[in-house]
Design a protein that fits this description.
This protein is of the alpha+beta class and about 160 residues long. It is about 30% helix and about 35% strand.
Length: about 160
């Protein structure tokens, strides 16, 4: 099913990112794919669940993104877990390097999508949540649910 005109089509999302990280800021980056990879991505045969981004030698790379080999790709298929270059302006990469110099901060992809025929990745600067922070969040959610149930019962 195609999305409405002007809206990007999402191919993969990272569900663990919002659970494990407090999202501080998000960015859009282009994704450099080779040969048949874009065909596999369009078939939704990509996963970004365990992936992360890192700046190496002044360039931005996405690691652990799995793109299954394209069935009709034969010898043109590439390694499924290879590091893929992300495309951003130099000023943006320098700004990210400054943000990543803080403690417990990392760069995680939130979703993989296509916009105007180009593969894009929504990256987020995230601060790792600790176990007790996750427990506190679960406790808050349960308390809110109990309050909502009590209010519904009271209205009847």
């Amino acid at each position: 099913m195609k999305p409405a005109k002007g809206h990007p089509e999402t191919f993969a999302t990272n569900h663990k990112a919002r659970r494990d990280y407090e999202i501080l800021e998000s960015f859009e980056a282009g994704l450099e794919l080779k040969g048949t990879e874009i065909k596999s991505v369009r078939q939704r045969r990509a996963s970004i669940d365990d992936s992360f981004a890192r700046i190496d030698g002044g360039e931005l790379f996405l690691y652990n993104m799995h793109v299954s080999p394209y069935e009709a790709g034969n010898r043109f298929n590439v390694e499924p877990l290879r590091a893929r270059r992300l495309l951003m302006h130099r000023r943006q990469i320098d700004r990210l390097a400054g943000l990543l110099s803080q403690k417990r901060v990392t760069l995680v992809p939130l979703r993989l999508y296509e916009q105007h025929g180009l593969a894009k990745v929504e990256l987020a600067v995230g601060k790792g949540k600790r176990v007790f922070e996750k427990r506190d969040r679960i406790r808050e959610r349960e308390t809110d649910r109990e309050i909502q149930r009590a209010l519904r019962r009271h209205r009847k």
